[in-house]
Amino acid sequence: MRAVDIRGETGPASALFINSETAVPKPTHNQALVRIKAFGLNRMDLLQREGKYPVPSGAPNTMGVEFSGIIDSFGSCSSTLGFHVGDEVFGLAYGGAYAEYIAVSTSMLIHKPKQLSWEQAAGVPETWITAIQALYLVGEYQAGQSVLWHAGASGVSIAGIQLSKAAEASAVYVTASSQAKIQFCKSIGATEGFSYKEGNWADALLSHTGGKGVDLIVDFVGADYFEKNLKAAARDGHIVNLGFLGGTVVKGDVDISPFLGKRLRLEGSSLRSRDEGYQKKLRDLLVEHALPRLVDGRFKIFIEKVFDMEEIQKAHEVLESNQTMGKLICRVH
């Protein structure tokens, strides 16, 4: 089969190429072999391409964790969890989605509604499941709390804004690099946004909330936002860290007294390193909390651009530009 590979195993976007001699994966007893129609791009893919992402044990070398496609066959397990050969599905995997075929656990598949295109369905699993995990399982969100989503125009935060609003958050805040991105976030449900390029966003948020701060912060930035997150969090606030776009080393003298003064919690989490049982629980939450609204249009899937798989170098370059407001998707012909 054809699959995206990396010359030299790691490297820049220009090192990506289509390897037409990749072996088709063989599904194990609880897996399905899916012929991929489209796959989504995520920032972890950039890190993996550069050799900076810890790939889970047993995951294929091929990048990509979210996809849509058609079931081609099954492994040896007699129970296929209600799926059949020829079913249109989308799902989450530990890797291998940048290809024509993928072997994936049937417990991580979802029947593709006819209302969603292949491209839309491929943009759902990683982003929406990550947002659901941050909000409900890790963040322990309760109705009426306020939520701040950093990187507001990213795929995860776009899902998170909509999920928070639907779950009756008292306010949904974002940070972003530009007023255009902030206005986009407000158009899909954000209450207010703060540009990190136009002053101290934490001071602006505290001013906007009359000094109260925000109950739940979902952060992808890390070190650069550590002190500001402590400042912006409300009493008994919860900070959920999902990434380190701003580095891992906090520099300078940082006052950590808010941990005690505000009774704060800072909790790190990841998705790809979780076991299959945990991921299935999130898959079920996606079906419960998001799928009906995705089908009837109350939740929107925003796709910035669709590429052909052969344009993977360009797709990675666009993702690296940090200018997107929505998902980047690749079609497999």
From TrEMBL:
<dbReference type="Pfam" id="PF00107">
    <property type="entry name" value="ADH_zinc_N"/>
</dbReference>
<keyword id="KW-0560">Oxidoreductase</keyword>
<dbReference type="InterPro" id="IPR020843">
    <property type="entry name" value="ER"/>
</dbReference>
<dbReference type="InterPro" id="IPR014189">
    <property type="entry name" value="Quinone_OxRdtase_PIG3"/>
</dbReference>
<dbReference type="InterPro" id="IPR036291">
    <property type="entry name" value="NAD(P)-bd_dom_sf"/>
</dbReference>
<dbReference type="InterPro" id="IPR011032">
    <property type="entry name" value="GroES-like_sf"/>
</dbReference>
<dbReference type="InterPro" id="IPR013154">
    <property type="entry name" value="ADH-like_N"/>
</dbReference>
<feature type="domain" description="Enoyl reductase (ER)">
    <location>
        <begin position="11"/>
        <end position="330"/>
    </location>
</feature>
<keyword id="KW-0521">NADP</keyword>
<dbReference type="Pfam" id="PF08240">
    <property type="entry name" value="ADH_N"/>
</dbReference>
<dbReference type="InterPro" id="IPR013149">
    <property type="entry name" value="ADH-like_C"/>
</dbReference>
<protein>
    <recommendedName>
        <fullName>Enoyl reductase (ER) domain-containing protein</fullName>
    </recommendedName>
</protein>
